[in-house]
Amino acid sequence: MSLALALGTTFLTHAGYAQAQADKDENANSWGAGTIVVTGRRDGYTSHEGGSATRTNTPLINVPQSVQVLNSSLIRDQDRRSLADALVNVSGVVPTKPEESALAQPLIRGFAAEIFQDGLPAYTINAMADPTSLIGVERVEVVKGPTSTVYGGGAGAPLGGLINVVSVRPQDKFAGYVAIRGGSWSTYNPYADINVPLSDNIAARVTAEYQHNESWIDKAKGYRWSIQPSLSFKLGDQTQLLLQGRYDRRSQLEYSGLPAAQAQSGQIDRYAFPGAPVGQPRSTIVNKLVSGEFRHEFSDDVRLTVTGRYFYNNYDEYGSFVSPDYGQPDPVGQPTTYYIFPIFLPNRVKEATADANLLVNKEMLGGQHELLVGANYDHTRNTIAMYFNFSPLGTFVPIGEIDLANPVYNNAFGPTPAFLQGQTDKFETTAAYVQDQATYGPLHLSGSLRYTHLKWRRVGAIDATYNHFNPRVGATFDIKPGVALFAGYATGFRGAFSFFGADKPKPETSTSLEGGLKLALPKAGLWGTIAAYKLTRQNVAVPDPEQGFLAAVQVGEQRSRGFEADITWEPIRALSILANYAYTDAEVTKDVPPSPPLTVSPLVGNRLARVPKHSGRIAAHYRVLNGPLHGLSFGAGVTAFSSRETWLPTVAAGGGTVPGYAVIDAQASYDFGRYTITVSGMNLGGKRGFDTYEYLSPVVAPIQPRSGYVMLKARF
């Protein structure tokens, strides 16, 4: 394998022309999506516009920030079934696996990123708002760097980046499909998308999915289901109302990861379940969302948009885990035998959020200006608790032992742990923002400013109020048609909502400098972004052992800098190639003042956990346009990562580095009439690697072994 491939140069796949033609009704514009423009541009994975960076439909080449869009063609053709699966197609992103979504967030450029749904937050300091299904998703837009000027509320404005999941909308024509997918690990997965016009002015759409599966990990299995209804009302020629609902439910036997050092050295069974599965309840995540969007166009140049949402999350995590940090029966004579500890983490979130903005296009000051003025409000209540078994001496009480080299699963989970450590947080965010996007010939300027008033009350502990201004400025310059240079400066701001400490916390902030080159050359079939950046995060909470378990002190600083490239090339109609590569240098730059005789904290200079220095993906897709095999398309790809740290500090017990790896995937699809059959495979080379995994100590999880799936779809 070449060095470039090992470092992650990426080529993705392209939508088959026959598939795109057959599915064109699935992706038709809804009434509320704006004016329909018919052009001669071929179908593919390229998206020329995106709304997540600016809340306006702006050509990506004019946005002074790195933005990538994963459209429905890419998601469908690569058979991506989760947000984590889809996000490997974007440089500099470390996805959160569904199994660890309750304890981890996806990372962009080394820092945590928030997941938004249709431009509105679904509060959580992890990835519990990760959509259970991508069946009802039209596209995923990834904005890199702070986005605090036009987004906020809930968990705060994103410091490192934003992942905006955009849902499908009702259409004015009857269309839909039913499908079923099955394969490795006893996967059974029926799903459907049905759109029905109810009258000349009303349309309804429902997407739904159910999946049940076993796992390559012993004892771990689960199911998920999701239903997403929506109604679209055309209230007039210039007025639309969209109502959306979503109910997700995920349930699985909680997996807590393996001790990193022993797993990678082969001392223990790589697929062992490190806990007490007998009687252990399944962890369950339930998300309920009700959203509305009202849009009125006063004229071609003036538009009002009002959106609102109520979000409810119910999460009950029942886990059992092992850890070198909390002791072993005989670490010398029985080094692979561990005590098992139970844990119960219930979490409840209620959030009401709304945003209103007015968009005005106006020629003034010698240029064309697109002015956006808006305000939003968010009220969130979050209750979280942690239940452990503790002795009077303050130590964990085990419920049994397990030899991970030769696991025997006869330990009972027992009653729910009784020791409680919990808190209730209430957040109220009120904000106003203004943004101007101006064009002066080849020069495109962008500037925005946001004022945020945040009240944070932790019952019995914190009562804080923050007032903060966030600016963002940037510019792109067309050096020739379809080729532009860009540069931007942005800031981030959010409350330190995951902070556990005795002192009143400061808000977390971030600053970003970014610049590079953007391409949009349809005649050459070439699109992409090449960027270099420096991103700094301040007031980071770091561990404070003197205050006790999970306590923190807020003096840290982290810095990420690097280079990224996301390229799409479609040289001929039958072939498409996309590429991404990321070099990410993310490390701790400030920590707790060291104790003598040290002069520098041992954390300073440590690489941030989970972040590979090199990463990327390479693949290609070809489609047969003529002849007896017309309707056939096929592709393959490689995803690669360099080594990653499991934990901070990297010298933590059992911690260290997870080696890099590269895995191969492939897909083939045949479209005949109203039917499509798709075959896909993951990790076709049978690579036996590990990924970092977020739990309570340095642990890892085995990557998915060689797997295969078959899907049959019928359209109507």
UniProtKB/TrEMBL annotation:
**Which stretch is the leader sequence?**
1-20
Answer whether the UniProt record assigns the keyword Aminoacyl-tRNA synthetase to this protein.
no
Key words of the record: Cell outer membrane, Ion transport, Iron, Iron transport, Membrane, Receptor, Signal, TonB box, Transmembrane, Transmembrane beta strand, Transport
A GO biological process this protein is involved in? siderophore transport
Q: Which GO terms describe its molecular function?
A: siderophore uptake transmembrane transporter activity; signaling receptor activity
Specify where it is mainly localized. membrane
Q: Which SUPFAM superfamilies match?
A: Porins
GO CC aspect terms: cell outer membrane
**Domain TonB-dependent receptor plug: where?**
60-156
Pfam families for this protein = Plug, TonB_dep_Rec_b-barrel
PANTHER family documented for this protein? FERRICHROME IRON RECEPTOR-RELATED, FERRICHROME OUTER MEMBRANE TRANSPORTER_PHAGE RECEPTOR
State the similarity comment: Belongs to the TonB-dependent receptor family.
Name the record gives this protein: TonB-dependent siderophore receptor
Q: Which organism is it from?
A: Sphingobium amiense
